[in-house]
Every structure is written in C-alpha cells, then in structure tokens.
C-alpha cells in the first residue's frame, strides 16, 4: 500500500517505504532491521542469544563486538523513526552509549576491541549529530526510504522562493554591525522554525514529496546561516 503510494508521489522506481513517518515508528524495509540470525562472537565463537549492553558485547565472553550494520541511527539511539524527537532523551542516550563504548574505556583491552570501540564511538557521534538537527534528521528519514536530495540541486524551486533567498543574501551582504547581524539571524531563525514545523506536518501526513521540497528550502536557509556565522568571525 505505502510502496505504491510513495512511488506515485516521488516518481522514482525501486522505493518501498513501508510504515508511517511522524509520531509513529517507521519500518521502510525489512533489510533495515536487525537480522534474524545472531552472528558468532569473533573472540569465543559463541552465539548465546542477543548481545547484552545494547547488543555491543558477547554474552559469553563479554568481548566487544563489531558495529551492527543493520542498525539505523534511530534504533541505535533508542528513538522511534520520527521527525519529532525528544532532544533531552537523545542527549542522555548518546552520553550513555559513549560511557559504554568510548575508546578511553578500552585502553587495556585487545587491539581488536580498541578498533571496534573507535568504530562504535564514531558511529554514535554521527548518529547523534544527524538526529539532533532538524534538517539532517529529516534528510536521514527520507534516506531510510531510499529518497535523497543530491547536494547542489534546486529541486525545481519556485521562482518566488529563489527570489526570497536572493534578497536575504543581498541584505546579509549589506549588513554591518551587531544590530544588523542579529536582525538577519532573527529572520533566518524564524524561517527555519516555520519550515521545521511544516516538515513535521508533512511527515505526519506521509507526504514525502512535500517533506522533500521543504527540506530543500531548509538547506538553502542553512547555507545562509553558515554565511552569517562566517561574517561574524573577526578578520
């Protein structure tokens, strides 16, 4: 049902998002979930059922295992696949995982576990940074369903929006002094807040085409935000 609807919306073949975005969990593909067969421990060769400690350690010998390639960022950080996230809970989970697998805690372990620890820590960092920001979180949600917005694309932006971006960039180029910069920051922040709210509603309606359009607009304003930061840096 969702498969046909999404293909019709996006006009892209080979996509099969199955599930609901928004406040409810999303299951885009069985392949994105944990595999049915438990891998053997690299150290002792045992199975022993699900791995303890958030599936990081062998239940038999307690050796740290390699990252699970089937886990997505939402699963890793214990979140529903949703555009709406509890950032306080996200931060708590991030800190919890880093206390569990950070390389600092594996200095006396085998080289294999040290290497796995670095990979886990990098993965957790990437997951946290991706899900923390609305833009990257929304893009990642679409990506889970095989929908991506290539860098540098205008995605058929309407001329009115492009004109708005052009005018904002012109105002930014002319802005001088702290007051003017704060005004520009306020304008862009308000635009991003409006777009974020609209993206959330689009995901809740399963309108992936609209979400894609809005996230592309957010990317434009994100570029403006970067220009503002650079302009505020003293020469």
From TrEMBL:
Signal sequence coordinates: 1-22
InterPro entries per the UniProt record, alphabetical: DnaJ_domain, HscB, HscB_4_cys, HscB_C_sf, HscB_oligo_C, J_dom_sf
Species of provenance: Delphinapterus leucas
Keywords associated with the record: Chaperone, Cytoplasm, Metal-binding, Mitochondrion, Signal
Compartments reported by the entry: Cytoplasm; Mitochondrion
Pfam families: HscB_4_cys, HSCB_C
Name this polypeptide is given: Iron-sulfur cluster co-chaperone protein HscB
This protein's pathway: Cofactor biosynthesis; iron-sulfur cluster biosynthesis
Family: Belongs to the HscB family.
CDD domains assigned: DnaJ (cd06257)
Function: Acts as a co-chaperone in iron-sulfur cluster assembly in mitochondria. Required for incorporation of iron-sulfur clusters into SDHB, the iron-sulfur protein subunit of succinate dehydrogenase that is involved in complex II of the mitochondrial electron transport chain. Recruited to SDHB by interaction with SDHAF1 which first binds SDHB and then recruits the iron-sulfur transfer complex formed by HSC20, HSPA9 and ISCU through direct binding to HSC20. Plays an essential role in hematopoiesis. Acts as a co-chaperone in iron-sulfur cluster assembly in the cytoplasm. Also mediates complex formation between components of the cytosolic iron-sulfur biogenesis pathway and the CIA targeting complex composed of CIAO1, DIPK1B/FAM69B and MMS19 by binding directly to the scaffold protein ISCU and to CIAO1. This facilitates iron-sulfur cluster insertion into a number of cytoplasmic and nuclear proteins including POLD1, ELP3, DPYD and PPAT.
GO biological process: [2Fe-2S] cluster assembly; protein complex oligomerization
J domain span: 72-144
Entry's Gene Ontology molecular function annotations: ATPase activator activity; identical protein binding; metal ion binding; protein-folding chaperone binding
Principal subcellular localization: cytoplasm
Subunit-level organization: Homodimer. Interacts with ISCU (cytoplasmic form); this interaction stabilizes the (Fe-S) clusters on ISCU. Interacts with the CIA complex member CIAO1 (via LYR motif).
Domain of life of the source: Eukaryota
Any single Gene Ontology cellular-component annotation: cytosol
């Amino acid at each position: 049902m969702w498969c046909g609807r999404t293909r019709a919306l996006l006009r892209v073949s080979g996509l099969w998002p199955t599930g609901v975005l928004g406040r409810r969990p999303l299951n885009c593909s069985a392949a994105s979930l944990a595999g049915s067969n438990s891998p053997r421990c690299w150290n002792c060769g045992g199975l022993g059922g699900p791995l303890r400690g958030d599936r990081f350690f062998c239940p038999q010998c307690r050796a740290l295992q390699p990252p699970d390639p089937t886990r997505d960022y939402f699963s890793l950080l214990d979140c529903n696949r949703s555009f709406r996230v509890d950032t306080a809970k996200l931060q708590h989970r991030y800190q919890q995982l880093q206390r569990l697998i950070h390389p600092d805690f594996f200095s006396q372990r085998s080289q294999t576990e040290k290497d796995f620890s670095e990979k886990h820590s990098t993965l957790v960092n990437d997951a946290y940074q991706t899900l923390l920001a609305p833009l990257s979180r929304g893009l990642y949600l679409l990506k889970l369903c095989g929908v991506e917005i290539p860098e540098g694309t205008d995605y058929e932006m309407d001329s009115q929006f492009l004109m708005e971006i052009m005018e904002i960039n012109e105002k930014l180029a002319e802005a001088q002094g702290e007051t003017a910069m704060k005004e520009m920051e306020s304008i862009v922040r308000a635009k991003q807040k409006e777009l974020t709210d609209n993206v959330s509603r689009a995901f809740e309606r399963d309108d992936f085409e609209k979400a894609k359009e809005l996230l592309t607009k957010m990317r434009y304003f994100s570029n403006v935000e970067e220009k503002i930061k650079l302009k505020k840096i003293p020469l």
